Amino acid sequence: MPDRPVEELYTEATDLMDKKEFKAAAHSFEEVERQHPYSQWATRAQLMTGFALYQAMDYDGSIAALDQFIRIHPGSDSLAYAYYLRALCDYERLADVRRDQSYAQNALKQLQAIVSRFPTTSYAKDAVLKIALVNDHLAGAEMEVGRNYMSAKLFTAAIGRFRTVVDKYQTTSHVPEALHRLVECYLALGIMNEAKSTAAVLGHNFPGSQWYQDSYSLLVKNNLAPEEEDESWIKKTWKTIF
Question: Are 89 and 158 contained in the same domain?
């Protein structure tokens, strides 16, 4: 069968995109590249294949197409967009916080690369926003595991998870609860100085939160009060993150 005109193939592909027939569109874009590999249309079609597969939610296929585009066209004006679309393939697959977080970790890595490599683009601005959401998601996963450890009375293991949230995801919405859960765990283990110090940091940074009120009530029940201890872990960490 003879090759079809490149304009005809490309128009067919874009028409399929308009009809939301994304898999078929991806196939047509691939035909543009196959039948006319050295044309300017081929370069455009490679990127559009990745986009069509992304729209079809074939994220693995999209990543493969985009990786090929990035490898073959490192100097393309569309390189930033290719990296951004590739990052979205992992971002769109952020799993439930109770599941494996590899997609979230991959998305974070890809989004950070966009900010680093293309800082002045609109893609970088959106990547910054998405990084915050991914971090919040990852912090939520740590919190979920920590709560499960608490339910099983594995307080030392729970402390490790909650400390990770305070250490690594200090700008997320989960920090106030993480601090409160640390107070609960320290009290359960009889580590009163850490409980008092953590409650003090919680009160200093989130004085109006329900989490601080709950921590304060727990301390009062144990005849304690929020108080920063110089040798406590949270006191040393607090100097650097709050």
Answer: no
